């Protein structure tokens, strides 16, 4: 089950892990309240039993520790046995990049909907992905992660959490993510899984991810080059002409001059390093280090999706506007995360003997 599922980055990773061991994936339920997200999810995982466009709270509406509500009884009955519950609650509320709403957004409470879902469904494994800053989030006076840990422990789970540099898992990006992992006591411990992730060293640079897309001829909207403003074209040309990667102060807009901590803004990417964290702003150099290493433009959606770890066959065509596509890609969880965690669980024998399920169509 995938809650706050987006286009299904975590699901894709899990499907890849299952597929590499000859299994398919039985998706009991995916929930997201954005129509664009569920449309993309349905396209890529048509065999999912249910993909619902609704708030997660409409499936899990009771308090942690309280008796199940009628809705929750119905959800549990409809989905049946769940092995793995995953979710990436929205992070805009507490992203470091969002200074205005940081740590006071009611979205933080959504993190705890994952715990309620675990209580209702009793899965063997719970995986919650978020930005590292979630560790500073509070809800009703206590940290949300601390609350989640305590509640899952009280539900008899083994619980561990860590900030994982996804670069180590083969993502061509310096993205770091907070992962909370809970497993039933008869299943491998979460620490064992984190040890496996810590020992992973599958680093990739930008050239590996997008080098082959330079000069691609395509009428796919994903390959459409962003159209920079004239002043930003001049800035990018300056970087290319001077073989520089950071824009000096005098080349920046006046409001961005002086002492600032945004060195990466208006920056140029390097081929031989991973990219910076991809956000929905990847199409504008004013939003971060998103300038192409060789060309006076920011990244295309195709390049951003590749850096996020999405294979070319992943279908984003349900996103009909440029901004919807950028949001979908920027919000996504790199599939390598789900692959690494689930592969480690499979290899540790977490699920015993599993029934065989037809391979997932996104991978067929
Ligand atoms: C960080 S993205 C999830 C990315 C996704 N897990 C993946 O693997 O690619 C968060 C998602 O939560 C959805 N969302 C936010 N609040 C929600 C709510 N209350 N109920 C359902 N979905 C919600 C957003 O539409 C967004 O798609």
Key words describing this protein structure:
364 residues, Rossmann fold, DNA Methylase, Chain A, domain 2, 2 domains, 7-stranded mixed sheet, two-stranded antiparallel ribbon, 9 strands, 30% helix, globular, binds S-adenosylmethionine
Give a description of the structure.
The protein has helices at residues 9-20, 35-44, 70-79, 111-121, 144-154, 190-198, 206-210, 230-241, 301-307, 322-331, 335-347; strands at residues 2-3, 30-32, 51-53, 84-87, 125-130, 138-139, 142-143, 157-165, 176-184. The relative contact order is 0.16. The radius of gyration is 21 Å and the shape is globular. Strands 3-2-1-4-5-9-8 form a seven-stranded mixed beta sheet, sandwiched between helices. It has a two-stranded antiparallel sheet with strand order 6-7. β4, α4 (111-121) and β5 (125-130) form a beta-alpha-beta unit. The chain has two domains: 2-204 and 334-363, Vaccinia Virus protein VP39 (Rossmann fold); 206-327, DNA Methylase, Chain A, domain 2 (Alpha-Beta Complex). It has 364 residues and is α/β, with parallel strands linked by helices. It is 30% helix and 11% strand. It starts with a strand and ends in a 17-residue tail after the last helix. The chain binds S-adenosylmethionine (SAM). S-adenosylmethionine (SAM) binds next to α1 and β2.
